[in-house]
Write a structure and sequence with these properties.
Number of strands of chain B: 20
Low-confidence stretches of chain B: 315-324, 565-572
Mean pLDDT of chain B: 82
Distance between the termini of chain A: 9 Å
Helix content of chain B: 25-40%
CATH superfamily of the largest domain in chain A: MetI-like
Radius of gyration of chain B: 26 Å
Low-confidence stretches of chain A: none
Strand order of the largest sheet of chain B: 6-7-8-3-9-10
CATH topology of the largest domain in chain A: MetI-like fold
CATH class of the largest domain in chain A: Mainly Alpha
Number of domains of chain A: 2
Strand content of chain B: 15-25%
Structural class of chain B: alpha/beta
CATH superfamily of the domain at 278-554 in chain B: P-loop containing nucleotide triphosphate hydrolases
Shape of chain B: globular
Mean pLDDT of chain A: 82
CATH architecture of the domain at 278-554 in chain B: 3-Layer(aba) Sandwich
Oligomer: heterodimer
CATH architecture of the largest domain in chain A: Orthogonal Bundle
Chain lengths: 323, 572
């Protein structure tokens, strides 16, 4: 177990090294930062001065080492666009995205698992067929279409829910939350549902397939032959086995939702990191873009580590090495 | 006298088909099991024996239903109106054990939880009482260190221990009837003997009635008091084991008993139930003329020489972290196979016999030692001609044929690849001959694998191995997934092919009786080493090594029926 963890940690460090290299290359070679930052009528001498001030005249290896050193202490550079520290920009936007993703994931798990179990237990029932059909729609509809559709219906048509923004937020230290005000909660509903739709479908289909495999297994047959109550067999004995791959997929989904909330955040003008990234792209704000890349890389690595640990907790077969 | 453990009258189980017709999986079954009696239900695949067991356990698959008949368990009538056994409680009144102990236990729960849950739900015991009872049960089924095993997960137990846990869980509420569906089929002979002893002891102590569903006549002879033979859902013959196995009345049962490989004496051929097609013999003669032709070059007598072979698994991992050092699956093994010989390797699971076969076939990397084929040392990378000269037949006929490839394409591929046939039209002529030689109709080539039964597929696998005109065929458990009658046909086929063509066979098996019938010389493997190597007759008549003696003593044997004590609990 410790061996496995150490192995994973080493792999994680390798991945992060690769990601920093790419982020650095992007920072350094996608366009000339000096040209982008200096005024249009700047003289060559002024540009050289700026280049020296930014340390861009040093050898590449030194620049990379400095870059890694800065990243390690949380200095992600200054945004070209509004001349503020990128780390601060990300920290401001992080709560919005995390809250959105957490709520979306909760919806996805809360609906996906029960629906999956239900349609695995009664695969021929009309509601199982209906769930299957609707879920096909959910998995094949692009996010912006569902998002715009929901806005049309609930914001423009019925006027029940706001169509953009986070509503009122409350500051808890540096963290701003929309979960404590009615308008914040109301604003959260549409984007969270939009973001969750794909994950609901994915988790539901996965649980259904896994559950059907597990229900056909010998140990469930043996449990039935011992006359144990149906709910106990289905929800305690079978579901725990069926949820093993769901852990992996949930981990990956959390990562993807945070990384690719871009579309949803754009449709709903949600002030999260995705929106920050889109704006950075349109202004060629390279420090923000490379910081975002670093952040997403770190996120996936961290989530995968967590998933490995969770696996070992749930599955005794992976624990046995420690005994 | 108390009520019978199980009484079945006129049981009929039906499966409705899509088009409205029904198939009777079980038709008109009568069966009576007294307390303390073991009743074997025997038959080949599709005989309906497992369906009977499932019906009793309330595990009939969805469309299947009990259409007629009366069933009473321990004197209580079972109500089938719902299609399931509603009058009794599974687990409390009927215990069940299944074939594969590796998959019968839930991998995520401890032994204590899996035995205890039955007690808690059926007897209303609390956790403490359930734990005490589970401990008693583990002692009763003879598990060493029961206190420690309670906390164990299934993967920490061996196959035999798992089956003991399964039995403990099945018996936890003291049922009067135990339904055992192939309880030892997945186990090694030594473990099988222990489990059979255990079942016999429990039957005596607890006055248990056992319905033993099996295809293994040896097990029936060892343990059962009475036997019912089924075929196509109907009872063919029923009676005391001693009578049915030694003096079978019905022709099918006679054939079935005769098809069981004997360990006590060697026969020229197996008795088979089905007859061969007329063309098969002629096709094999053709095959022989083909094989005889190119044998002009001088070849050494030993076609395969293996010296000091060692194979290790599981060493090394990514980045050099994690576990160190490997598991030595094959340890310093040496043997030589003569041309035209059938050389057997026997052993229990984990003995390394399959690894030897894979090493010879070039499917695993060897750690040390040399393999010489026709006098030429061969490594992992082999010239094409050599790969054609050595072919394999695998255990599972369902997994070893490509389901998306027509049979004639599957057979033409090795011929064209190894340049045995000049072109496709030449290949087609040979394919027809090969298919006939393995006893199938020539038009079989136009079909896909799903159109064939397990035995037919294994014949086709053999035909495919022969298509490259090999000199050596490595057979890894070629018949262990087949019914006895089909097994007899396949083994006869391999023998005939050897006699007709001078083919050499490396024959891997865990079944000592099969090895006895097939092989000229035999190597016995244990823990990666060869412990004894001798002529087949010598080995079985006069085993030298203690392990060989023990293995031979443990094999369930139809011929030993006469020596067994008459059962005391059997009622007439």
């Amino acid at each position: 177990m410790t061996g496995v963890l150490l192995n994973r940690l080493a792999q994680a460090l390798l991945v992060m090294a690769a990601v920093t290299a790419i982020a650095f290359a992007m920072f350094r070679y996608v366009g000339d930062p000096v040209l982008i930052m200096s005024r249009e009528d700047a003289t060559p001498a002024e540009r050289e001065e700026l280049r020296a001030a930014l340390g861009l005249d040093a050898p590449i290896v030194v620049q990379y080492a400095k870059f890694v050193g800065r990243v390690a202490v949380g200095d992600l550079g200054i945004s070209y666009r509004n001349q503020r520290p990128v780390a601060k920009l990300l920290a401001e936007r992080l709560p919005a995205t995390l809250e959105l993703v957490a709520v979306a994931m909760a919806i996805a798990l809360g609906l996906g698992i029960p629906l999956g179990v239900l349609s695995a237990l009664h695969p021929k029932a009309w509601y199982a067929q209906a769930i299957q059909a609707v879920s096909l729609l959910g998995i094949s509809m692009p996010t912006f279409v569902t998002g715009i559709g929901l806005i049309m219906l609930f914001a423009v048509g019925l006027r029940w829910l706001p169509s953009f923004g986070r509503g009122e937020t409350v500051a808890l230290g540096w963290w701003t939350t929309g979960l404590l005000t009615p308008s914040g909660l109301r604003s959260l509903i549409l984007p969270a549902v939009t973001l969750a739709l794909f994950s609901i479908t994915l988790i539901m289909r996965l649980v259904r397939a896994e559950m059907r495999d597990v229900l056909a297994s010998d140990y469930i047959r043996f449990a039935r032959a011992r006359g144990l109550p149906r709910p106990y067999i289905h929800f305690t004995l079978a579901l725990r086995n069926a949820l093993m791959p769901v852990i992996t997929v949930t981990g990956l989904q959390v990562g993807s939702l945070i990384a690719f909330a871009i579309v949803t955040e754009t449709v709903f003008q949600w002030p999260g990191m995705g929106l920050l990234f889109i704006q950075a792209v349109s202004f060629v704000d390279i420090p923000v873009m490379s910081a975002y890349l670093l952040f997403v890389g770190f996120l996936f690595v961290a989530i995968n580590m967590t998933v490995d640990v969770l696996y070992a907790i749930v599955d005794p077969r992976l624990r046995s090495g420690a005994r | 006298m108390s009520a019978a453990a199980l009484s079945i009258r006129g049981l009929r189980v039906e499966y409705p088909l899509e088009d409205g017709r029904v198939v009777a999986a079980v038709d008109g079954l009568d069966l009576e099991i007294a307390q303390g009696e073991i009743h074997a239900l025997v038959g080949e695949s599709g005989a309906g024996k497992t369906t009977v067991g499932n019906a009793l356990m309330g595990l009939l698959d969805a469309p299947g239903r009990v259409a007629a008949g009366r069933v009473a368990i321990a004197g209580r009538n079972v109500d089938f109106r719902t299609g399931r056994a509603a009058g009794i409680v599974q687990g409390r009144d009927v215990g069940a054990i299944f074939q594969d102990p590796m998959t019968s236990l839930n991998p995520l729960f401890t032994v204590e939880s899996q035995i205890g849950e039955t007690l808690r739900f059926h007897l209303g015991l609390d956790r403490e009482a359930a734990r005490a009872r589970a401990l008693d049960l583990l002692r009763a089924v003879g598990i060493p260190e029961p206190e420690r095993r309670l906390k164990a997960y299934p993967h920490q137990l061996s196959g035999g221990q798992r089956q003991r846990v399964v039995i403990a869980a099945a018996l936890s509420c003291d049922p009067k009837l135990l339904v055992a569906d192939e309880p030892t089929t997945a186990l090694d002979v030594s473990v099988q003997a222990q489990i059979l002893d255990l079942v016999r002891a429990l039957v005596r102590e607890r006055g248990l009635g056992v319905l033993l569903v099996t295809h293994n006549m040896g097990v029936v002879a060892e343990i059962a008091d009475r036997v019912t033979v089924m075929r196509g859902g109907k009872v063919v013959e029923s009676g005391k084991v001693a009578d049915v196995l030694t003096r079978p009345k019905h022709a099918y049962v006679q054939g079935l008993v005769a098809a069981v490989p004997r360990i006590d004496k060697r026969l020229a051929r197996f008795a088979t139930i089905g007859d061969e097609t007329a063309g098969a013999q002629a096709a094999r003669d053709d095959l022989r003329t083909r094989y005889m032709r190119p044998r002009a070059e001088k070849v050494p007598d030993a076609i395969l020489e293996v010296a000091n072979l060692t194979v290790e698994y599981g060493s090394g991992s990514l980045l050099g972290l994690g576990r160190k050092g490997g598991f030595r699956a094959v340890d310093d093994v040496s043997f030589a196979v003569k041309r035209g010989e059938i050389f057997g390797i026997v052993g229990e699971s984990g003995s390394g016999k399959t690894t030897v076969a894979n090493a010879v076939a070039g499917l695993v990397r060897t750690a040390a030692g040399t393999i010489r084929f026709a006098g030429q040392a061969i490594g992992e990378k082999r010239p094409r001609a050599l790969r054609g000269a050595m072919q394999m037949v695998f255990q599972d006929p369902y997994a070893s044929l490509n389901s998306r490839m027509r049979i004639d394409d599957a057979l033409a591929e090795p011929m064209l690849f190894h340049g045995v046939a000049a072109g496709r039209s030449d290949a087609d002529a040979r394919i027809a001959m090969l298919i006939e030689a393995v006893g199938l109709a020539p038009d079989a080539g136009r079909r896909y694998p799903f159109a064939f039964s397990g035995g037919q597929r294994q014949r086709l696998s053999i035909a495919r191995a022969l298509a490259a005109e090999p000199q050596l065929v490595v057979c890894d458990e070629p018949t262990s997934s087949l019914d006895v009658s089909v097994q007899a046909q396949i083994l006869n086929l391999l023998k005939d092919l050897r006699d007709a063509t001078g083919l050499t066979l490396l024959f891997i098996s865990h079944d000592l009786a099969v090895v006895r019938q097939m092989c000229d010389r035999v190597a016995v493997m244990q823990g990666g080493r060869i412990v004894e190597l001798a002529d087949c007759d010598t080995l079985f008549a006069d085993p030298q090594h203690a392990y060989t003696k023990r293995l031979l003593s443990l094999v369930p044997n139809v011929a030993r029926i006469g020596n067994r004590l008459e059962p005391t609990g059997a009622s007439p």
